[in-house]
Specification:
Length: about 450
């Protein structure tokens, strides 16, 4: 850089062409002065290189389902595109090599950082979210004053930027954090995750934030780690079943077969896999759980209910009905019984036994109502509406559909997440009944509600 400044300032007797690419926020003051003088003398031509267009980015990314998300995260920066596209690819994949090459420029920005600044940027990469300087100091094992000075340096270098809140900072882009994180030694990475979990626990942070770090530095010698991961999985099961499944896999790596928590984690994992659309893996796990029970041991009705849903998703309608009937025989008047009656109503509808479908749907609605499960009641009422419609009782069908709509419209999105199929079922029933405006409204809400599971 010093040689470049000298050349630009005093080019010598012959003509000299200097080509310089830089980030405006990272331009050193001395070079900025030289460029300012060159511009004043009419010797400087400035080209602002903008981001890639979505079409240009598609040429780099190829046919990927997450192409739009990567483009938004990268803001069209080709280096960031390559780094984020390589994330999660197998080692040896050509995409991973491209990501490694693209990360070299980001790694180069870390050259020359002192120990304190490097520790701070590593801690920021492990946190992976906006942070307060005091939290960063705790994670990086620095004094607060040291951390603040390091953050001042990193801000001048444009590695760290203020966020919307004046007290919060974050790495320049997610891709920067990805590169820094991937280049951490495994022991250093685990130590920083452990520090992050401890610091967040002291600040009473939500368990999901803590679980992110526990999953990456889990200790089999600390039973509370498995408990934390399972609790976080329950919290995210419907809102983000992919995260829930990750937490459960990490928890299972800490638990021994035969422990009560091991069984609970497996049941939850099967449910999370079903919610992510991975019905085949969910079925395999549920089959293993059921076959592992000692002879004569009662089957868990909740597990059987999940197994019935899986079989129906896989198109095994007869098996789904048989499992649901088996589970229902072991249950009294419970919320799970309502769900099983709903499964049996679906089964009867699929085989065009509309009277049986109506009977199970009405029973499910009444049972769900007694247990204050309004969304479950709405789904059962929508099923009953279809059964009444195909039994030539249009008045009853309209009444059931109207009541289901009242319950769905009054429910919050987080409540609907626990049974999003209820909204889909209602929209389907309204569409068949010719209530197209209501059907469109409910199906649109179904697609707007954040959920990763394909509605089937």
């Amino acid at each position: 850089m010093e040689r470049l400044i000298e050349t630009c300032a005093d080019p010598g007797p012959g003509p000299v062409l200097c080509l310089l690419a830089y980030r405006q926020r990272q331009l050193p003051p001395a070079l900025a002065e030289v460029l300012s003088r060159a511009a004043s003398a009419g010797l400087l031509e400035v080209w602002d290189i903008g981001p890639l267009s979505p079409e240009q980015a598609a040429g780099l990314l190829g046919d990927r389902t997450d192409a739009d998300e990567i483009y938004r995260e990268s803001m069209g920066n080709p280096q960031y595109l390559k780094v984020l596209a390589a994330r999660g690819r197998a080692h040896g994949d050509s995409g991973a090599t491209v990501g490694t090459d693209a990360g070299l420029a980001i790694s180069g920005e870390l050259a020359g950082l002192n120990h304190t600044s490097l520790a701070a940027v590593q801690a920021a990469a492990v946190l992976g979210e906006p942070f307060h300087p005091e939290l960063l100091a705790a994670v990086a094992d620095l004094e607060v004053a040291e951390a603040v000075r390091a953050l001042d340096t990193l801000t001048r270098l444009d590695l760290v930027r203020p966020t919307g809140s004046a007290a919060q900072l974050a790495l320049r882009r997610r891709a920067v954090g990805e590169v820094v994180y991937e280049r951490l030694d495994p022991s250093r990475r685990a130590a920083l995750h452990q520090s992050a979990e401890t610091a967040l626990a002291k600040r009473s942070a939500p368990i999901v934030r803590r679980a992110h770090h526990v999953a990456r530095a889990a200790d089999p010698g600390r039973p509370e780690h498995a408990t934390t991961l399972i609790a976080a999985a329950r919290d995210t099961l419907y809102a983000d079943p992919v995260v829930s499944a990750d937490c459960l896999r990490a928890a299972l790596s800490l638990l021994q077969e035969g422990e009560p928590l091991h069984y609970q984690a497996q049941v939850l994992l099967a449910r999370a896999q079903l919610l992510t659309g991975d019905a085949t893996e969910s079925r395999a796990l549920l089959d293993a759980l059921r076959s592992a029970l000692p002879g004569g041991s009662p089957q868990d009705p909740c597990t059987l209910a999940d197994a019935s849903r899986v079989e129906r998703r896989l198109g095994r309608i007869v098996e789904a009905g048989a499992i649901a009937r088996s589970a229902l025989a072991a249950l009294a008047d419970t919320a799970t019984a309502a769900a099983l009656h709903t499964e049996l109503s679906d089964y009867a509808y699929d085989v065009q036994d509309y009277e049986t479908s109506r009977r199970h749907a009405e029973t499910a609605a009444a049972t769900a109502r007694r247990h204050q499960d309004t969304v479950g009641e709405a789904k059962a009422l929508a099923q009953a509406a279809l059964a009444h419609l195909f039994s030539a009782d249009q008045a009853a069908a309209l009444t059931r559909a109207a009541r289901a709509a009242e319950l769905i419209d009054a429910a919050s999105d987080p409540t609907l997440l626990t049974n999003l199929e209820a909204v889909h079922q209602l929209g389907l029933a309204e569409g068949i009944m010719g209530r197209f405006a209501d059907a469109e409204r409910h199906l649109a809400r179904c697609t707007r509600t954040t959920w990763t599971t394909p509605v089937t």
